[in-house]
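Example 3.2
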Amino acid sequence: MTAKKNIFQIVMNGLFILLAFLCVIPVILVVITSLTEQSTLTNNGYSFFPQQWSFEAYRYIWSSAKHTILNAYVVTIFTTVSGTVMGVLIVALYAYPLSRNDFKYRNLFAFFSFFTMLFSGGMVSWYMICANVLRLSNTIWALILPSVMNSWYVVILRTFFATSIPAELIDSAKIDGANEYTILFKVVLPLSLPGIATIALFFTLSFWNDWYNSLMFITNEKLRNLQFLLQSMLSKIQMLNEADGNAYITESLANVPTDNVRMALCMVAAGPILVVYPFFQKYFIQGLTVGAVKG
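Structure, written as tokens:
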């Protein structure tokens, strides 16, 4: 029995290692392609072992938008950190009462959360509220406030609270004289780091990859985030590739690396997240699995 179990574990471990390797291969190819000379890509296509290496793609990005990229990084980092903190706080404040059986209006607020997962007011009403009512246009808050609430995250954190925090612990805190805010911030949240880290990672990825809010609300170049800037650069390169018959465009396109710039843009956009993710990984896995195990 033990031998069969060991063989099964070896096979499963080998399978997961293979799957992990297959997931890493595209990332490795993106990095190598971004460092490959454009003429080599044109003549030989993509390869893990290019004939000629080059940093031209990164030099092109840096020379084309040196100051704007630095400013966009600052804007993106600020919106990501601020939005993640605000989002986690708002979701926790909404999810915690829903996890309490003694909350009088639990079903009503749970219905509001579930209903908005299925239906929305539409893009026009959303834009009018953000732009005309809240007056978020051309402010840094336009990149934060429209995305700090997510009903699906409320469901995840509510389930985590309900399955991971014993009701007896809350009752004992009440007996000791703690109010609801004290229970939440000094008892529940410190014991819910896996769930909090999971939601924080979701918010971090969402804010870091967001370019839509910048497109909808921002016209001031100093407030544009990294993803919108890179998307604009990518669109310009695509426009040059699709244009033909114009001598000026042909001459401009000759000086622009194309395929390797696309890959370099991916690395510029995803690099910081690849560095941050390992620090969240342990809590992220625990946050996704503890509710399923205990529920």
